[in-house]
TrEMBL record, chain A:
Component of a P4-ATPase flippase complex which consists of a catalytic alpha subunit ATP11C and an accessory beta subunit TMEM30A. GO terms for cellular component: early endosome membrane; endoplasmic reticulum membrane; plasma membrane; recycling endosome membrane. It is a multi-pass membrane protein. ATP binds at residues 444, 486, 509, 540, 620-622, 735, 741, 765-766. Catalytic component of a P4-ATPase flippase complex which catalyzes the hydrolysis of ATP coupled to the transport of aminophospholipids, phosphatidylserines (PS) and phosphatidylethanolamines (PE), from the outer to the inner leaflet of the plasma membrane. Major PS-flippase in immune cell subsets. In erythrocyte plasma membrane, it is required to maintain PS in the inner leaflet preventing its exposure on the surface. It is an enzyme of class 7 (translocase). Pfam families: Cation_ATPase, E1-E2_ATPase, PhoLip_ATPase_C, PhoLip_ATPase_N. Its EC number is 7.6.2.1. This is Phospholipid-transporting ATPase. Residues 121-248 form the P-type ATPase A domain. Its main location: membrane. It is found in: Cell membrane; Early endosome membrane; Endoplasmic reticulum membrane; Membrane. Its cofactor is Mg(2+).
UniProtKB/TrEMBL annotation, chain B:
This is Cell cycle control protein. Pfam families: CDC50. GO terms for cellular component: endoplasmic reticulum; Golgi apparatus; plasma membrane. One of its GO terms (biological process) is phospholipid translocation. Belongs to the CDC50/LEM3 family. The lineage of its organism: Eukaryota, Metazoa, Chordata, Craniata, Vertebrata. It is found in: Membrane. It comes from Bos mutus grunniens (Wild yak). The chain crosses the membrane at residues 48-68. It comes from the Eukaryota. Keywords: Glycoprotein, Membrane, Transmembrane, Transmembrane helix.
Length: 1062, 329
């Protein structure tokens, strides 16, 4: 949506390709070159959706696009146009209420957006024009303007830093509002503009910036600045994300900076990132829609039956038009087919309460309010990061209770302790020191800390020199010449430094597989043993190598590097090529090993999830040995688990990879099928009884399996692979690229039975996986905030997953499932007597209940108890839920919303509706209900049924409520009291605005009869008896099955987790 | 990946300034932690069963009481559709509306009916609960506010000559207008007319609040400019000329009729026994006859008419249904 409007507003799609040229200060760079002003969009931010004029039509249109709202609108329109038995108010009022509340909410949100937009757009900024500081409104900034920003101000648009008040041209920035990282980051000015610290000097700058067209990646920027000073040839400098100040970020600890605007308004990276995440729909919502269709069908059937019977009944003339109920002239003249059609519509309107508007309101409210419980939970609070859980969406709460099959996770590992091998050298320390104490990679902090322990302290960077304090407390200085950054392809990084003696050294650090081929062979053997040994024990290993660069060579290298850095196109490939050339022929110095300490209680959590019937897949980028040992450590694999390996190691033995793969696949399948005969219906049971299998697969093998899909019969591979996966208790996928993770999620999602997937991860590389799965959970780890920003829920620690799923997920599911079932139940109870009454009133659409009751039933009389239930119910104690994961299995597979429970509720409702109606019907057969012989009419009949109905459905909920807080007491007894009070009130006054005073004293008169009292009590009791019988049967059955339960093996670790958990 | 390394972050001094050290620990309140004190309802089988039996026992007790009291109730129903076949035939033609037709039905009461005795008429197959029928009335007119308000009364709003009908509407028009008189045949020559009260058959609130005559000295002038309903033999202000408190809209028979019945077979209270003279104790056993002035046509819609004599107890009529269902569990 945004994109589209953006394109309309600003540049066309074709302009996006290639680069844009920005003239700093909008000065032409030279007189000879004609200054062509490129058109860019202005700096106005429009995040609002509506204007004052289009709010009403646009908002209404959007609201009625929802099927439910549209349905109710249709019903309302029928009521208005066709002469129907119930007044349009009965359905119009709730609809109006829902629409108004939503419109007000959305209007308010939009107003806030307008205000925020205005605040941003109208805020004052200072622009340097003609060597003067000019005060302007933010929205007037044009691309190319030089902007002055002071401390603690936010940047009004994306700026290239030209100079700051500090000598070295740096500034500190916090990007908390962009990505949630509240720490300070340093940004740099280009060396040549650092000196321009005054208004005059900066105005004299003649420069042009070439940069890519705006794109949403916050961390990517490629550009080049050409500086024309004193008519000498332009100096070109490369620009990267470290030079770009993003709109929305705040300047910190720097007095002021000058920057030139490169992206403005809707083209800033912040605006480009502002887009709604795709809506995820929960399984419960799908069930609701399915039930809705069933009930819609029931509704249409009822209306059709009544219409047909009406015309059958009316086929005898004395029924069609008895002398006491003559037709009006208009009625006689109406065309019969039209009459039938309007009759059908009238019946539909009469029975439309079977699908209640209020259910949607209640469900929304339940989700919205319920999600607060997650963010309020103290157990999810983590002192280290000073934050609790975060809920980004409230639509999926119940889905947490539904993760039946798979659970993906990565990054169990956050280092807490560090071990550095003693064979580390001085240089190794320097190497890692460059990476600072505040690096986002925990490994590097670990290394620096480790070095410190061995006597080499990294002091800091000063003027391009890195300073290290050695064991003798002397400061050694190294001039940092180049940093060859880490990337996932090379899996290594290097620095080039100049020592105090003038030698130029290159240090390289990287994964063993990345470093070994690049060092002299004879050095490898000894260290390789160490590395492999360490890797086996679950350490993350790095190798360190160095090489001396001769000054001549350095000149060449330097030139190549600078060239590559300047490149606008394919910069990354070019850099990579240069890096590749430089990092050769190195000498291996040593290796480091960092212990991956598992997060607190990771093993217990995994064990609990396992016991809860979840299938756990581990997707990691780590190497196989490390990942395997991690899996052992977190008890994903037990000692008796038989491992099936599908890795390069097992496959590369043979020449034809595919053949070997095929062989392995079929072999494994045979093994597993033998183990689990096809008849095993419940996998869960099978797991506990049979030998456990674990599958290990690595990235390259996986792509072999997935990519071979072009060949004939290749699909086979995939399906065999999936069959194997489904039979294994745990699957470990190592050496995964981020995109492969998402691929696996998609693959599993499309499996037979479409299992519900949950992904949990903490790194930026988990984002694609988190977005792809049904429920994405981010860990607010140390590796940045991308994961938690993109997730549906974010928790501080992995261990919190246990409570999130087992307690919150379980409870939410039970609550909302009960809510949905109860809503359909109570409305079927409500409308069935109305339907039955049609058989006794000649199918004339006479409503059984008064209009006020029809309207208020769902809004006032029965809404609050179920809402309170759906927010507060804990059918099982939270502590029990967390400590006994097997309980989770009870609700897996959307158990409470399957056909069985649905039929139970429907039959219960049908039974109760019938009891209400015929019970009261037989009561009315007696001579008189009153001791004075007075008789009651149809409104009394309806009111008796309605009273029984309200009491029965409320008491039914009371029977279902296991957790009675004072709120439950208040709303349940309060609702009943309110009903009685309202009925007295409604019948106590002649209401001047009503045409008919049908209810006048009906309720009071009704209660004066002993028979009515007795009937009400009796029928409530009869209606509830099946429910009570069910409870009896269930508890009897529970007692009889209690003994076998005890024999099931208990998982050993629970006891002590519990004590440690609180 | 590479961005991580580029963004060398603040030194520790700065870091302290930048970070917000306010604790974001969620409030430790019972509501937020879902730890509200609560009663945990654990229904066990024995609890439920004992509750079940307790209620069952209560029901049994109630049922026995109800059965006993229902047993004491005497009820006589006489269907006179067949017995007055000639009158029924006459009434089948609407044109005969002005012809009188009387019909006498004799019956024998083997046991006396003690206490208050109520006389009902009962209609079979008369749908007072038809949707259009129920709507066809004017409460503004009936409450005496505006006698000429006939807006909702279609198809009985105005008479042929254009005058608004009072009381308008289908319900009022179809009012039951048979006259039923009960005679006690003391012996073959002495026939005593059983004294009946024609008031206090309607709800108190209906009679004194919901239905009001228009405020005029003279009732007939209050209804000036209106027409009688087409089916009525006489205008509304002549319903009970002897008792001004029972005339016009506040006539009990009229009010009872206006409270529409729930089902097509229904009873409506017609008269109460006036317990004087021979009838102080109730109706003595013996021979009786109903003299019925047959006006209300039922054979046109294949309906039936009946008279019901009944005594009542504290729980109303003979609620055998209630008694039996109470005994059952």
């Amino acid at each position: 949506m945004f994109r589209r409007s953006l394109n309309r507003f600003c540049a066309g799609e074709e302009k996006r390709v290639g680069t844009r040229t920005v003239f700093v200060g909008n000065h032409p760079v030279s007189e000879t070159e004609a200054y062509i002003a490129q058109k860019f969009c202005d700096n106005r931010i429009i995040s609002s959706k509506y204007t004052l004029w289009n709010f009403l039509p646009k908002n209404l249109f959007e609201q009625f696009r929802r099927i439910a709202n549209f349905y109710f609108l249709i019903i309302f329109l029928i009521q208005v146009t066709v002469d129907t038995p119930t007044s349009p108010i009965t359905s119009g009022l709730p609809l109006f209420f829902v629409i108004t509340v939503t419109a007000i909410k959305q209007g308010y949100e939009d107003w806030l957006r307008h205000r925020a937009d205005n605040e941003v757009n109208k805020s004052t900024v200072y622009i340097i024009e003609n060597a003067k500081r000019v005060k302007k409104e933010s929205e007037k900034i044009k691309v190319g303007d030089i902007v002055e920003v002071q401390a603690d101000e936010t940047f009004p648009c994306d700026l290239i830093l030209l100079s700051s008040c500090t000598v070295d041209g740096t500034c500190y920035v916090t990007t908390a509002s962009l990505d949630g990282e509240s720490n300070c980051k340093t940004h740099y000015a280009v060396r040549d503009t650092i000196e321009l610290r005054t208004v005059e000097s900066i105005d004299n700058l003649r420069a042009a910036i070439e940069c890519e067209q705006p794109q949403p990646d916050l961390y990517k920027f490629v550009g080049r600045i050409n500086i024309y000073s004193n008519s000498i040839e332009a100096v070109a400098r490369s620009l990267g994300p470290e030079n770009l100040l993003l709109k929305g970020a705040t300047l910190k600890n720097t007095k002021k900076i000058y920057g030139v605007a490169v992206y403005t308004g809707m083209e800033t990276k912040m605006a480009l990132n502002y887009q709604g995440k795709s809506q995820k729909r929960s399984a419960v919502e799908k069930s609701i829609n399915a039930f809705l269709i069933v009930y819609l069908f029931i509704l249409l059937t009822k209306a059709a039956i009544c219409t047909t019977l009406k015309y059958v009944w009316q086929s005898t003339p004395h029924n069609d038009e008895p002398w006491y109920n003559q037709k009006t002239q208009k009625e006689r003249e109406t065309w019969k087919v039209l009459k039938m059609f309007t009759d059908f519509l009238s019946f539909m309107v009469l029975f439309n309460f079977i699908i209640p508007v209020s259910m949607y309101v209640t469900v929304e409210m339940q989700k919205f309010l319920g999600s607060f419980f997650i963010s309020w939970d103290n157990d999810f609070y983590d002192e280290e990061i000073n934050e609790g859980a975060l809920v980004n969406t409230s639509d999926l709460n119940e889905e947490l209770g539904q993760n039946r099959e798979e659970l993906f996770l990565r990054a169990l590992c956050l280092c807490h302790t560090v071990e550095v091998k003693p064979n580390d050298t001085v240089d190794g320390v320097t190497e890692s020191s460059e990476l600072t104490y505040m690096s986002s990679s925990p490994d590097e902090i670990a290394l620096v800390k480790g070095a410190k322990k061995y006597g080499f302290t990294f002091v800091g960077v000063q003027n391009g020199y890195m300073r290290v304090e050695n064991q003798r407390k002397e400061i050694e200085e190294y001039e940092l010449l180049h940093t060859l950054n880490f990337d996932a392809v090379r899996r290594r990084m290097s620095v080039i430094v100049k020592t105090q003696t003038g030698d130029i050294l290159l240090f390289c650090k990287g994964a063993d597989s990345a470093v070994f081929p690049r060092v002299q062979n004879h050095e490898i053997d000894l260290i390789k043993v160490h590395v492999e040994h360490n890797a086996m024990e679950g350490y993350r290993t790095l190798c360190i190598a160095f090489k001396e660069i001769a000054p001549d060579d350095y000149e060449r290298v330097n030139r190549q590097l600078i060239e590559a850095k300047m490149a606008l196109q394919d910069r990354e490939e070019k850099m990579e090529k240069v890096f590749d050339e430089i990092e050769t022929d190195m000498h291996l110095i040593g290796a480091t090993a960092v212990e991956d300490k598992l997060q607190d209680q990771a093993a217990e959590t995994i064990e609990a999830l396992h016991a809860a019937g979840l299938k756990v897949w581990v997707l990691t980028g780590d190497k196989m040995e490390t990942a395997k040992s991690t899996c052992y450590a977190c008890r994903l694999f037990q000692t008796n688990t038989e491992l099936l390996e599908l890795t390069t190691k097992t496959i590369e033995e043979s020449e034809r990879k595919e053949d070997r793969l095929h062989e392995l696949l079929t072999e494994y399948r045979k093994k597993l099928l033998h183990e689990f005969p096809k008849s095993t219906r419940s996998l869960k049971k099978a797991w506990t009884e049979h030998q456990e299998y674990g599958l290990i697969i690595d990235g390259s093998t996986l792509s072999l399996i997935l990519n071979s899909s072009q060949d004939s019969g290749s699909n086979n591979y995939k399906s065999i692979f999936l069959q194997i996966c489904m039979k294994c208790t745990a699957v470990l996928c190592c050496r995964m690229a981020p995109l492969q993770k998402a691929q696996i999620v998609r693959m599993v999602k499309n499996l037979k039975g479409s299992p519900i997937t949950l992904s949990i991860g903490d790194g930026a590389n988990d984002v694609s996986m988190i977005l792809e799965s049904h429920v994405g959970i981010g860990i607010k780890g140390k590796e940045g905030r991308q994961a938690s920003r993109n997730s549906d829920y974010a928790v501080p620690k992995f261990k919190h997953l246990k409570k999130l799923l087992l307690a919150h997920g379980h409870l939410y599911y039970v609550r909302i499932a009960h809510l949905v079932q109860y809503f359909f139940y109570k409305n079927l109870c409500f409308i069935l007597p109305q339907f039955l009454y049609q058989f006794f009133c000649g199918f004339s659409q006479q409503p059984l209940y008064d209009a006020a009751y029809l309207t208020m039933y769902n809004i006032c009389f029965t809404s609050l108890p179920i809402l309170a239930y759906s927010l507060l119910e804990q059918h099982i104690n939270i502590d029990t839920l967390t400590s006994d994961p097997r309980l989770y299995m009870k609700i897996s597979g959307n158990a409470m919303l399957q056909l069985g429970p649905f039929l139970y509720w429907t039959f219960l409702a049908a039974f109760e509706g019938t009891v209400f109606f015929f019970g009261t019907y037989f009561l009315f057969q007696t001579t008189s209900l009153d001791e004075n012989g007075k008789v009651y009419g149809n409104w009394t009949f309806g009111t008796i049924i309605f009273t029984i109905l309200v009491f029965t459905v409320t008491l039914k909920l009371a029977l279902d409520t296991r957790f009675w807080t004072w709120i439950n007491h208040l709303v349940i007894w309060g609702s009943l009291a309110f009903y009685v009070f309202f009925s007295f009130f409604w019948g106590g006054i002649i209401w001047p605005f009503l045409k008919q005073q049908r209810m006048y004293f009906v309720f009071a008169q009704m209660l004066s009869s002993v028979s009515v009292w007795l009937t009400i009590i009796l029928l409530i009791f009869v209606s509830l008896s099946p429910e009570m019988l069910r409870i009896v049967l269930r508890s009897v059955r529970r007692r009889s099955t209690r003994n076998p339960n005890l024999e099931l093996p208990m998982l050993l670790s629970y006891k002590h987790i519990d004590s440690g958990y609180r | 990946m590479s961005e991580k390394y580029m963004w060398v972050t603040c030194r520790t001094r700065m870091k302290r300034k930048c970070q917000n050290y306010e604790s974001r620990l969620p409030d430790n309140t019972a509501v937020k932690q879902q730890q509200l004190p609560a009663f945990r309802l654990q229904l066990t089988a024995s609890e439920i069963l004992s509750g079940f039996f307790a209620i069952g026992l209560f029901c049994l007790g109630m049922g026995i009481i109800l059965l006993l009291s229902a047993k004491s109730i005497k009820e006589v129903e006489i269907n006179y559709t067949e017995k007055c076949a000639t009158c029924a035939k006459l009434r089948e033609e609407a044109t005969n509306f002005d012809k009188e037709c009387n019909c006498s039905i004799s019956f024998y009461l083997p046991q006396k009916m003690e206490g208050n005795v109520y006389l009902y008429y009962k209609l079979y197959g008369f749908y007072q609960n038809l949707y259009r029928y129920i709507l066809s009335r004017s409460n503004i007119q009936l409450v005496g506010a505006d006698v000429k308000d006939v807006r909702n009364c279609a198809p009985f709003r105005t008479s042929d000559n254009g005058l608004p009908i009072a009381p308008c509407g289908a319900i009022a028009n179809s009012m039951f207008n048979d006259t039923i008189v009960l005679w006690y045949n003391f012996n073959s020559s002495t026939h005593i007319r059983v004294p009946m009260v024609r008031t206090e058959t309607a709800w108190w609130t209906d009679k004194y609040v919901k239905f009001q005559n228009p405020a005029f000295q003279n009732l007939s002038s209050a209804f000036a400019g209106t027409a009688k309903p087409p089916n009525w033999p006489k205008p509304v202000y002549e319903l009970d000329e002897n008792d001004p408190g029972n005339n016009g809209f506040i006539n009990d028979d009229f009010i009872v009729w206006m409270r529409t019945a729930a089902f097509p077979n229904f009873k409506k209270l017609y008269r109460r026994l006036h317990r004087i003279g021979n009838f102080t104790e109730g109706l003595p056993a013996g021979s009786y006859s109903f003299i019925i002035n047959y006006n209300f046509p039922v054979s046109r819609f294949q309906g039936q008419k009946a008279v019901v004599l009944s005594t009542l107890t504290w729980s109303g009529g003979s609620s055998l249904f209630l008694a039996l269902t109470y005994v059952e569990p």
